[in-house]
Each structure stands twice: as C-alpha cells, then as structure tokens.
Amino acid sequence: MRCGEIGMLLHPYLDGELTEDLEAVVSRHLLRCSACAHEAHSLEQTRAMLRSAVEQAEPSDAFVERTSARLRDRLSQHIRPAPRQIVGRQWTLPFTRDDQASGE
Amino acid sequence: MNTLFVLHVDRVFAYARHLLGSREDAEEVTSEAFLRAFEKAAAFRGECPLRGWLFGITRNLCMDRLRQPRLLLLEPDEVAQQSDLGAQAAAMEAAAAVRGVLASLDEPQKMVLLLCDVEQWDAREVAAVLGKSVSATKSLLYRARRTMKSRLTEAWADTEPEENLDALW
C-alpha cells in the first residue's frame, strides 16, 4: 500500500477503527516508512496535547441536584390534584317517591 | 422528564461548557435547556431524535448568550500540577498555545475536536449533536486534526529557532 493510501487510513488507525488486517498493513508500513510514521506520531501527539490542555467538562453534583429539584418543582406545578373521592350512592332515580313504597 | 435529565445532563453540560467557555454560563444554559424542553415537550412530535432536539434547544440558548455583551472572565488554567517549576511553566505555555490554536479554529472544527478527542464521545453521538452524518462528522474531525497540527507547528515555529522544529514532534 502506498503512502497516499496509508495517509487516508491514519486517523481511523489512531482511533482503533480499522479491521485487524488493515491495522496490520498500516502498522507494517509505519515500521518501514519514516515519513508516514512521523505523520502518525505528530497526529497522536497533537491529540495528547489537546487532552492535556483542555479538561473534560463535568457538571458538579451540587448543580445536578439543584437542577433536578428545580425540575421536580416545575413538574409538580403542572400536576392536577386528584379528584375528590366519592363515597356511597350519589345517584337517585328521578321517579322514586315515598308514596310508591306504600303501593298507592 | 427526570429520566431525560439524568440521561443527558452530563452531555448537555459538556456541550454548553465547550461552546461558552464558562462553567457558570454552562450551568445556567443547561438548567434553562431542560426547563424549556419540559415546557415544549407537549409540542414535540418526534420529527427528529429526542437528543438532537434537546441539543438544538441547548445550542440556541448558547448562541443567544454569546450574542449578549459579556465580561470575559478568565477561568483558572486547568493543567495538571507539577512539582518542578520549570516543567510546570513549560506545560502551562504549551497548554496556552494549544488553547490559542483551538480558539482560532472555526466553530464546527473546534466543537468536533472537543467532543470527539477531549470528551471522547462516540462519532454517532457527535454526529447527532452536530446534525451531520457519521461520515461527514469523521471527515470534519480528520480535517480539524490536520488543521490543529499545522497551526501548532506554525505557532511553535514562531517561537523557536528553525533548527529546533523537529523537536516539536
């Protein structure tokens, strides 16, 4: 494989995304070709310098708890109260009269 | 809603933090993003993946904030402490140079480097946030890495004698 083709594979090679066979091809080429080896090394070092200079961003536990509580409060404002519990018979027949019970 | 928050708060915060450059601003935007997502949840019809929708809200809030006049507060240098003063000074200088080059990149290249190489997100996650295909995201990443490398080399060349250039890598 020529240097131009290897150059296109260097990034996925550094990211560990090549198949085993292709990775072996690139590795063998880098052992023989100082120019491509230098390019691979400089890309790798650039990434390492970037990771040293910029920390990963993580929210603090206090922020997560505070925001979670705020969301729960907002959510509770949108929940309607449960309907009043109805106990016992609430309906009557419209034609029921006391005189009907005595047979008149 | 709480599940949405728990699943995505770390990612949303990291994205806002790197866009805005300030922890305090990132906290405010992250909090507001989830509140707005809750308020707009009823209107969300699934036109796009939920994560992309959430990051779209976050991005808009970040852009609004960046458009406001703001006092630039310098965050403390986040470089590992070293006992040797000489090594510490060199590390701080190198870190400052890297951050300077990073700031000179256009926003897509800067964000893809931060999300892929610093935060180490999967390319599919970054693609969803940036609204690009996975292959376009990887192409952008590779281009950004090459740009970063060449600008760092130029920055080094500006400060070093020519015979020391090989020592950079």
Record the SSE blueprint:
The complex is a heterodimer of chains A (104) and B (169).
Chain A: H1 3-14, H2 20-32, H3 34-53, H4 61-77, H5 98-101
Helix pairs in contact in A: 1-3, 2-3
Chain B: H1 2-20, H2 23-40, H3 50-67, H4 85-104, H5 107-118, H6 123-130, H7 134-159
Question: What's the tally of helices of chain A?
Answer: 5
The total of helices of chain B stands at: 7
- Could you spell the SSE succession of chain A in H and E letters? HHHHH
Instruction: Report how far apart the termini of chain B are.
Output: 48 Å
| Low-confidence spans of chain B | 77-82
Anisotropy-based shape of chain A: elongated
What Rg of chain A do the Cα atoms give?
38 Å
What does this 3D model show about the protein?
Helices cover 63% and strands 0% of the residues of chain A. Chain A is built from 5 helices and no strands. Chain A is elongated, with a radius of gyration of 38 Å. In chain A, 14% of the residues are buried. Chain B is built from 7 helices and no strands. In chain B, α1 (2-20) packs across α5 (107-118). Chain B has helices at residues 2-20, 23-40, 50-67, 85-104, 107-118, 123-130, 134-159. Chain B is mainly alpha-helical and 169 residues long. The interface between A and B is large, with 29 and 45 residues.
Structure characteristics:
heterodimer; A: 104 residues; mainly alpha; 63% helix; elongated; disordered C terminus; B: 169 residues; 7 helices; 0% strand
Describe what is shown at a glance.
The complex is a heterodimer of chains A (104) and B (169). Chain A has five helices and no strands. Chain A is mainly α and 104 residues long.
